[in-house]
């Protein structure tokens, strides 16, 4: 019976709207820059240019990421910034990838 609340939590996370990648890094105990670097090195986020740190389309299509457009007004005029977020499904998937890569340790339940 102890697994039921954990399963319920996992189900709720899987349908959550999204979390910034830096906040997810804090939750799982990694440094933000280390997680971004790992995601780029593994081809999940783009590594160069104006779209650096934007998820590749296949991972957006899989439902792991969303990208929010933010319009900034500064001395150079309006600029559009793209902000990637992990969906609930993406949090579970990235967590699994990090466990497989040995960057996270499994948590004992019970």
How many strands appear in the DSSP assignment?
3
Query: First CA to last CA: what distance?
Result: 10 Å
Beta-strand level of the residues, as a percent range?
15-25%
Number of domains: 1
Q: What gross morphology would you assign?
A: elongated
Number of helices: 5
Cα Rg: 16 Å
The computed structural class is: alpha+beta
GO molecular function: DNA binding
Protein name: Putative antirepressor
InterPro entries: Ant_C
Domain Antirepressor protein C-terminal: 2-99
Describe this structure in a few short sentences:
This protein has 110 residues and is α+β, with helices and mostly antiparallel strands.
Provide structural commentary.
InterPro entries: Ant_C (IPR005039). Residues 2-99 form the Antirepressor protein C-terminal domain. This is Putative antirepressor. GO terms for molecular function: DNA binding. With 110 residues, this protein is α+β, with helices and mostly antiparallel strands. It has one domain. Helices cover 44% and strands 20% of the residues. Helix 1 (3-14) packs across helix 5 (88-100) and helix 2 (21-28) packs across helix 3. The N and C termini lie close together (10 Å). The model has no long low-confidence stretch (mean pLDDT 87).
């Amino acid at each position: 019976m102890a697994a039921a609340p954990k399963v319920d939590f996992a189900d709720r996370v899987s349908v959550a709207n999204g979390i910034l990648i830096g906040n997810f890094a804090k939750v799982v105990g990694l440094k933000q820059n280390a997680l971004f670097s790992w995601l780029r090195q593994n081809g999940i986020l783009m590594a160069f240019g104006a779209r650096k740190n934007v998820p590749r389309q296949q991972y957006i299509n899989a439902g792991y990421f969303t990208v929010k457009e933010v319009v900034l007004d500064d001395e150079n005029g309006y600029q559009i910034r793209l902000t990637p977020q992990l969906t609930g499904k993406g949090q579970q998937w990235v967590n699994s990838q990090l466990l497989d890569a040995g960057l996270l340790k499994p948590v004992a339940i019970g």
